[in-house]
């Protein structure tokens, strides 16, 4: 955008972005809406378009579109603090916890867009044709969010309420019982005060989605559970052992100070080093 300036000598209006204000010299001219000079309406004076405005608008629209696309891709994931809190509530109420995994969860999600894919290797008939997806596939950017939306819509139809502060926790309360469901991608924790109602909910979930065998929970997200006299200690021994096995360090020698603080980070196998640090 530029400035519209009135030249008091020539009575001409000039539009320009390059304006320098001289505060020492002031001249006040009162111009009302529609005031015209030499037959020209100042209120309708055409402003010289700035090419950068169109570029800026295009960038803003591109940014907003990028934000909309990101919102359509990412799904809620329960935080560690929320998981600890809901586990504490479940244990305080002395509820039994069951763990279930959804088989091929992302394949249960519905597509909102029309998506085509190339013919997979081994099925290509060299015709140049593409396949129209009828269901979501692993690898689609929006697969996670679409699965989360479908699960949420289904569980809400069962009279569960989604917490405002934590989208991955669902609660159903009645005068006789209450049931908690925790969702993390394709893993579920279910706990309730009435085992029969919990069983009904599990069966409804099993009928809607392919579920693994229901078991009493002893591990979730790498955190192990132990029931002991109204206590619920949490541990990550299994997760630590998994990391050691992954990086072949089960039989490694312990060291109080693995590296000197001034050690250079230029390692021979930098990817392996960074990968091990990320898992901690």
From TrEMBL:
Taxonomically, which superkingdom?
Answer: Eukaryota
The UniProt entry, under InterPro entries, shows: DNA/RNA_pol_sf, RVT_2, SH3_retrovirus
Q: Which residues form the Retroviral polymerase SH3-like domain?
A: 2-26
Tell me where in this chain the Reverse transcriptase Ty1/copia-type domain is found: 72-260
Supply one GO BP term. DNA biosynthetic process
Q: What is this protein called?
A: Copia protein
Please report the organism this UniProt entry assigns to the protein: Araneus ventricosus (Orbweaver spider)
- What taxonomic classification does the UniProt entry list for its organism? Eukaryota, Metazoa, Ecdysozoa, Arthropoda, Chelicerata
């Amino acid at each position: 955008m530029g400035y519209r300036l009135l030249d008091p000598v020539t009575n001409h209006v000039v539009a320009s972005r390059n304006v320098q204000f001289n505060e020492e010299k002031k001249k006040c001219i009162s111009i009302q809406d529609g005031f015209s000079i030499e037959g020209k309406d100042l209120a309708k004076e055409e402003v010289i378009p700035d090419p950068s405005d169109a570029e800026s608008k295009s960038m803003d629209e591109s940014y907003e579109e990028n934000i909309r696309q990101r919102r359509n891709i990412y799904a809620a994931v329960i935080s560690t603090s929320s998981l600890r809190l809901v586990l504490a509530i479940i244990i305080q109420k002395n509820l039994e916890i069951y763990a279930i995994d959804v088989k091929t969860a992302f394949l249960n999600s519905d597509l909102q867009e029309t998506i085509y894919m190339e013919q997979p290797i081994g099925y290509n008939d060299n015709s140049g044709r593409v396949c129209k997806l009828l269901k979501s596939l692993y690898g689609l950017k929006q697969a996670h969010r679409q699965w989360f939306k479908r699960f949420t819509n289904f569980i809400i139809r069962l009279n569960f309420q989604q917490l405002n502060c934590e989208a991955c926790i669902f609660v159903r309360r009645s005068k006789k019982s209450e049931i908690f469901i925790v969702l993390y991608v394709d893993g579920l924790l279910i706990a309730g005060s009435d085992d029969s109602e919990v069983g009904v909910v599990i069966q409804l979930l099993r009928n809607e989605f392919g579920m693994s065998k229901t078991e009493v929970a002893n591990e979730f997200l790498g955190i192990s559970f132990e029931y002991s006299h109204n206590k619920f200690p949490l541990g990550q021994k299994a997760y630590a052992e998994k990391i050691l096995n992954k990086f072949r360090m089960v039989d490694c020698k312990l060291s109080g100070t693995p590296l000197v603080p001034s050690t250079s980070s230029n390692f021979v196998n930098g990817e392996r080093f960074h990968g091990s640090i990320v898992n901690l």
